[in-house]
């Protein structure tokens, strides 16, 4: 469970209540009635699904062969048709879909009709390059409009996309391309980050010799002449070349509701990332509905989700949720502090953003930078705030409420996962009385419980494992090519209940409070990183014999990574070696997985059966007296570790 004890304690003592403002309540999209409607989940989800366009209506809302769900059985639907064609027939044709701001300052405004045309043209280009229904396409791109076009073009022709976050390393990209057996890669010459150009195509070139299934690569020209981008004849194509002259209409593929819409890799508790499989009809219904009610969506809103499209938050609440609802949204390419720490606030002022959805780690940075940055801007367009990705400490919640929301905006703290596809636990704005730090209640038509070791629900006031008790439309259907792992990871611990991997508390009023992961997953700045993945990257270095990785509390990131490393005989634990190991992890996984601290030790605390006791490492790192050490094979290692940790920390 999370070691952030300070946060935990303040969280559990939090008593402040924030009822929805009266004016908000009067005009809210959700009323308490929808909780009643949600008591019949199938009827509720069928009602909202009917608001989408179906080529053929389903015969059956849900077929539940635990743990395998099929939603809207027999229904035929297309994601791109619902995000685009459905709007352009009416008054939304010339409505702005995306207001894009590049980091260097350029701006592009893209209407629904513009997006429709570009998606159709690119869909035809993909077909011409040989992509067929059900072929996987990997996308490795920064936050530029072409990533939206690329995803929707894939959806249009029924080719599942697999987006790999642009901050991942080339090796991480290779692993994901090969697992997906992708036929085509869509990437970019380079992207901007804090003024620097990140050459993504060049990175991809490092590994494209080891990706046997890739037949072609499409490259978007983003930075142009700043980089000399090598293009291999017969394999690499510029995006602008393949779309020029492409036909402007591409008939959308009629997909079965249960056909795969996309794959998204996420960290699990072993070193190998899991390919989370999302299908079409249920996923679209789940994100369409949650976007509408949780963000209180009105046609005149300007929505801004600050996540990267490379994560599930971007898939569900930049691509599919907002576009299915016909919303106008802001998309920003770069860093929050570039060129200055007021960048986000200037974007909100300039584009009159009304709904802001971001992560606690960003809020904690803003708190640290001070309120002077936001006070220079007019943020009065904001009417609703959201947060996601990790527990928010009550003080950060209240700061967000006070300084960003000017005490007038409800805050929706939304709990969900790559696997859930859609938000599950959340307040409903205009309905729920919010408690800072609590994710409130299950969204209508979904079910959650906090259970003890035996799977029995805890009494109000108790804590335990967070489980989900009912199938929901956007749930993952399986792990790609690994059904066994799907069953074992989510459905084996408590029969009939989905294991989230999070600890939670249920308070006396029935509100849920997330306490953090109970497995070997770390949340660094809201990003999910498995200890095993970082450990594998470390032992892959020739000097390393063994490694154990834990999460340690971090003021801004929530958690940071600490690595305990045993070097091979003859290797020296120098500061240079620390740097080398950090660089190695960066190369294997990417910057987000680089350990904050690397500590060289000669032993690790292990059980007699050889399992590393990370719990004891966490005790050492947080300066706590070690918990139960009776199962330790060599109790003496604790003293050595403690001494090493403290002396190296002091350096
Ligand atoms: C894990 C899932 C879902 C979008 C981004 C993360 C943590 C997520 C909250 C929240 C406390 C949260 C959980 C969860 N988490 N939202 N509002 N409060 N914790 O997706 O990378 O799949 O991570 O993020 O630990 O299991 P993900």
% residues in beta strands: 15-25%
Helix percentage: 25-40%
State the end-to-end CA separation: 29 Å
Supply the CATH architecture of the domain at 111-253: 3-Layer(aba) Sandwich
The total count of strands amounts to: 32
- Computed Rg: 24 Å
The overall pLDDT, averaged over residues, is 95
> Uncertain regions: pLDDT < 50 for 5+ in a row?
1-5
Shape: globular
- Per CATH, the class of the domain at 111-253 reads Alpha Beta
Identify every distinct bound molecule in the structure, by name, code or SMILES.
5'-O-[(S)-butoxy(hydroxy)phosphoryl]adenosine
Class computed from helices, strands and strand pairing: alpha/beta
CATH topology of the domain at 111-253: Rossmann fold
Report on the biggest sheet.
Answer: 8 strands, mixed
Number of helices: 21
Main-sheet strand order equals 12-11-8-6-7-14-15-25
What does this structure look like?
The chain has 651 residues and is an alpha/beta fold. Among the domains are: 111-253, Rossmann fold, CATH 3.40.50; 525-650, GMP Synthetase, Chain A, domain 3 (2-Layer Sandwich). The strands form 9 sheets. It has an 8-stranded mixed β-sheet, sandwiched between helices. The site of 5'-O-[(S)-butoxy(hydroxy)phosphoryl]adenosine has 21 residues, from helix 12, strand 20, strand 26 and strand 27. ATP binds at residues 389-391, 413-418, 502, 517, 528. Residues 39-83 form the Acetyl-coenzyme A synthetase N-terminal domain. Its EC number is 6.2.1.1.
């Amino acid at each position: 469970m999370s070691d952030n004890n300070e946060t935990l304690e303040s969280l559990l003592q939090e008593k402040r209540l924030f009822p929805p403002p009266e004016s908000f309540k009067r005009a809210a999209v959700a009323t308490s009635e929808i909780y009643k409607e949600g008591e019949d989940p199938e009827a509720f989800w069928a009602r909202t699904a009917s608001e989408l366009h179906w080529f053929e209506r389903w015969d059956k809302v849900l077929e539940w062969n635990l743990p395998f769900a099929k939603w809207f059985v027999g229904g035929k639907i297309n994601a791109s048709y619902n995000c685009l064609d459905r709007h352009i027939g009416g008054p939304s044709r010339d409505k702005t879909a995306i207001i894009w701001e590049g980091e260097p300052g350029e701006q592009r405004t893209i209407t629904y009709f513009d997006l429709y045309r570009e998606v159709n043209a690119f869909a035809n280009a993909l077909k011409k390059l040989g992509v067929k229904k059900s072929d996987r396409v990997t996308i490795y791109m920064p936050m530029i409009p072409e990533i939206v076009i690329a995803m929707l073009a894939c959806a249009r022709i029924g080719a599942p996309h697999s987006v790999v976050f642009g901050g991942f390393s080339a090796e991480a990209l290779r692993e994901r391309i090969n697992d997906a057996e992708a036929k085509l890669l869509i990437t970019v010459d380079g992207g901007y980050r804090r003024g620097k150009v990140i050459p993504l195509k060049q990175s991809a070139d490092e590994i494209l010799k080891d990706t046997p299934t890739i037949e072609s690569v499409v490259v978007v020209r983003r930075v142009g002449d700043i980089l000399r981008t090598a293009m291999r004849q017969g394999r690499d194509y510029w995006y602008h070349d393949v779309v020029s002259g492409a036909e402007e209409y591409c008939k959308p593929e009629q997909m079965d509701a249960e056909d795969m819409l996309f794959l998204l890799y996420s960290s699990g508790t072993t070193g190998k990332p899991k390919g989370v499989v999302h299908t079409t009809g249920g996923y679209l219904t789940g994100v369409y509905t949650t976007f509408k009610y949780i963000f209180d969506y009105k046609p005149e809103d300007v929505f801004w989700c600050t996540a990267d499209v490379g994560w599930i938050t971007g898939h569900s609440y930049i691509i599919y949720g907002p576009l299915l609802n016909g919303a106008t949204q802001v998309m920003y390419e770069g860093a929050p502090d570039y060129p200055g720490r007021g960048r986000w606030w200037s974007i909100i002022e300039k584009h009159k953003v009304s709904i802001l959805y971001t992560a606690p780690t960003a809020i904690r940075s803003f708190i640290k930078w001070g309120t002077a940055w936001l006070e220079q801007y007019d943020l009065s367009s904001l009417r609703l705030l959201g947060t996601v990705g990790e527990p928010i400490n009550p003080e950060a919640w209240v700061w967000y409420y006070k300084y960003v929301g000017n005490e007038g905006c409800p805050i929706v703290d939304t709990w969900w996962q790559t696997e859930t596809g859609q938000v599950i636990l959340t307040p409903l704005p205009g309905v729920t009385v919010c408690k800072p730090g609590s994710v409130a209640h299950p969204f209508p038509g979904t079910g959650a419980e906090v259970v003890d070791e035996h799977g029995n629900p805890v009494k109000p006031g108790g804590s335990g494992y967070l489980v989900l008790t009912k199938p929901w439309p956007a749930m993952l259907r399986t792990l790609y090519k690994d059904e066994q792992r799907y069953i074992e990871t989510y459905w084996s611990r408590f029969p009939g209940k989905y294991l989230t991997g999070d600890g939670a508390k249920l308070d006396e009023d029935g509100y849920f409070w997330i306490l953090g992961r109970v497995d070997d997953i770390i949340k660094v700045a809201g990003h999910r990183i498995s200890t095993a993945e970082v450990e594998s990257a470390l032992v892959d270095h020739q000097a390393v014999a063994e490694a154990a990785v834990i999460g340690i509390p971090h003021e801004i990131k929530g958690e940071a990574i600490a690595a305990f490393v045993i070097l091979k005989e003859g290797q020296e634990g120098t500061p240079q070696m620390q740097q080398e190991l950090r660089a190695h992890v960066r190369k294997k996984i990417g910057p987000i997985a680089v350990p904050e601290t690397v500590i060289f030790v000669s032993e690790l605390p292990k059980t007699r059966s050889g399992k590393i006791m990370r719990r004891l490492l966490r005790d050492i790192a947080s300066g706590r007296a070690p918990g139960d050490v009776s199962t330790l094979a060599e109790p003496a290692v604790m003293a050595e570790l403690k001494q090493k940790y403290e002396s190296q920390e002091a350096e």
